């Protein structure tokens, strides 16, 4: 499998296929966001956008169990020891149940405390509380999907994953669109529909992963059995150590991507939060091409490094950095001249002074932060997880201090400063680490 599924040509084709399918959620966002803001109102849209952010947090609260499974199974495939896959999968599934349940209970408690205190502008009514409670159920299901999704990543099944991710991301816009078209605006109804869809997604990921049993000569485990129950409190030490360092990476990523969305509502009204989140969601959907590409190459780099094929690692890494660098430069150049016009045309009556003032500089900050993913993933793929995580803790702490200051002094217009500061420092350090490992 290593010589075929992980050839440079095949990995490159899968990367292009995944990038191509990103058009689906981007198109859904571009077409439907103005309609949803107009018909839901900025108050409901701010709440819905924040709720969806909670669903994405499952990937960041997962203690890195997904990439740990991905890297370890990719290494097993590189060593041609596929019989070990079952044990690694059992470890990851057990961990996903334990962490998912623990965070579900913790976040429900935080949600209730926040509702009682009425501290947040996005959580004031009974309907708000019910909406976020249902969203946390979706969050839990997202946790349970992680092991099977990560297993498919290690198998380099990125054609299926591209389609599944595109549909999932597009559903976040299509579900409220169709619900509002058929019924009244109801965050409870929309979130319940999303919950049903995630149940179906869980089953699809499991069935797809199980289809590889014969091809790779390993035995899938049932998601509900006595061995899984025992594994909830008994973990293999090597797996646990690796997840701890990956968890730091995901915690820092969650802070950079989502902390402001839950912190700024303490100081700003829902209209400002709606505009801020709308810009960040749009720009991240474009810039996340780095996450898509690096994810496709992650398992391949791990296999190539295990095979001691450093030349292939270096060549493909440079291809990513140059290609995405040129793309981002073109986006920034076009946006410098036309972004305000595009946003005005796109948002129409929802366009505001805040969006006009902050659009371009938030775009630049978002592009830079996302570009660093291309530098982080290769280091993780070759096992330098601890070193990367230690550095990211330091730069994220600086980012956090800046954001806390901006919120406390009502300076949300300068949020881009936090993005750019962290990104530039990370680029300098990560490039140095890559060169030391002789893969750049």
From TrEMBL:
<feature type="transmembrane region" description="Helical">
    <location>
        <begin position="158"/>
        <end position="179"/>
    </location>
</feature>
<feature type="transmembrane region" description="Helical">
    <location>
        <begin position="359"/>
        <end position="376"/>
    </location>
</feature>
<feature type="transmembrane region" description="Helical">
    <location>
        <begin position="15"/>
        <end position="37"/>
    </location>
</feature>
<dbReference type="GO" id="GO:0005886">
    <property type="term" value="C:plasma membrane"/>
</dbReference>
<feature type="transmembrane region" description="Helical">
    <location>
        <begin position="244"/>
        <end position="263"/>
    </location>
</feature>
<feature type="transmembrane region" description="Helical">
    <location>
        <begin position="129"/>
        <end position="146"/>
    </location>
</feature>
<feature type="transmembrane region" description="Helical">
    <location>
        <begin position="283"/>
        <end position="305"/>
    </location>
</feature>
<keyword id="KW-0472">Membrane</keyword>
<feature type="transmembrane region" description="Helical">
    <location>
        <begin position="416"/>
        <end position="434"/>
    </location>
</feature>
<feature type="transmembrane region" description="Helical">
    <location>
        <begin position="388"/>
        <end position="410"/>
    </location>
</feature>
<protein>
    <recommendedName>
        <fullName>Oligosaccharide flippase family protein</fullName>
    </recommendedName>
</protein>
<feature type="transmembrane region" description="Helical">
    <location>
        <begin position="185"/>
        <end position="207"/>
    </location>
</feature>
<keyword id="KW-1003">Cell membrane</keyword>
<dbReference type="InterPro" id="IPR050833">
    <property type="entry name" value="Poly_Biosynth_Transport"/>
</dbReference>
<keyword id="KW-0812">Transmembrane</keyword>
<keyword id="KW-1133">Transmembrane helix</keyword>
<feature type="transmembrane region" description="Helical">
    <location>
        <begin position="317"/>
        <end position="339"/>
    </location>
</feature>
<feature type="transmembrane region" description="Helical">
    <location>
        <begin position="92"/>
        <end position="117"/>
    </location>
</feature>
């Amino acid at each position: 499998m290593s010589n075929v599924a992980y050839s440079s040509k095949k990995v490159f084709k899968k990367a292009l296929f995944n990038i191509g399918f990103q058009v689906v959620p981007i198109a859904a966002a571009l077409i439907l966001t103005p309609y949803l803001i107009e018909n839901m109102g900025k108050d409901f849209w701010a709440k819905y956008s924040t709720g969806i952010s909670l669903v994405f947090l499952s990937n960041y609260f997962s203690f890195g169990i997904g990439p740990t499974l991905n890297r370890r199974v990719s290494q097993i495939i590189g060593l041609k020891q596929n019989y070990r896959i079952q044990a690694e999968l059992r470890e990851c599934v057990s961990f996903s149940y334990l962490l998912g349940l623990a965070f579900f209970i913790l976040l429900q408690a935080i949600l209730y405390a926040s509702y009682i205190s009425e501290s947040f502008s996005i959580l004031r009514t009974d309907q708000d509380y019910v909406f976020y409670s249902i969203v946390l159920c979706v969050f839990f299901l997202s946790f349970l999907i992680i092991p099977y999704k990560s297993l498919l990543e290690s198998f380099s099944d990125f054609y299926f994953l591209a389609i599944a991710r595109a549909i999932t991301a597009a559903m976040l816009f299509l579900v409220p669109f169709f619900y509002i078209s058929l019924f009244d605006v109801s965050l409870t109804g929309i979130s319940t529909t999303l919950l049903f869809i995630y149940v179906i997604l869980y089953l699809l990921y499991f069935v797809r992963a199980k289809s590889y049993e014969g091809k790779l000569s390993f035995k899938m485990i049932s998601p509900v059995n006595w061995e899984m129950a025992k594994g909830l409190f008994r973990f293999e030490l090597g797996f646990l150590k690796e997840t701890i360092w990956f968890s730091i990476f995901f915690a820092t990523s969650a802070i950079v991507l989502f902390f402001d969305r839950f912190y700024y509502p303490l100081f700003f009204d829902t209209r400002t939060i709606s505009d801020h989140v709308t810009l960040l969601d749009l720009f991240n959907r474009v810039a996340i091409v780095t996450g898509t590409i690096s994810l496709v190459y992650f398992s391949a780099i791990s296999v190539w490094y295990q095979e001691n094929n450093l030349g292939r690692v270096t060549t493909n890494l440079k291809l990513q950095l140059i290609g995405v660098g040129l793309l981002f430069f073109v986006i920034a150049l076009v946006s410098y001249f036309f972004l305000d016009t595009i946003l005005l045309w796109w948002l129409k009556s929802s366009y505001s002074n805040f969006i006009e003032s902050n659009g371009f500089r938030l775009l630049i900050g978002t592009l830079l932060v996302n570009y660093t993913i291309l530098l982080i993933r290769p280091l993780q793929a070759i096992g330098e997880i601890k070193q990367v995580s230690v550095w990211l803790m330091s730069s994220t702490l600086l980012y956090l201090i800046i954001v806390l200051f901006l919120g406390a002094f009502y300076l949300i217009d300068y949020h881009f400063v936090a993005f750019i500061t962290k990104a530039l420092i990370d680029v300098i350090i990560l490039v140095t680490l890559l060169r030391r490992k002789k893969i750049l």
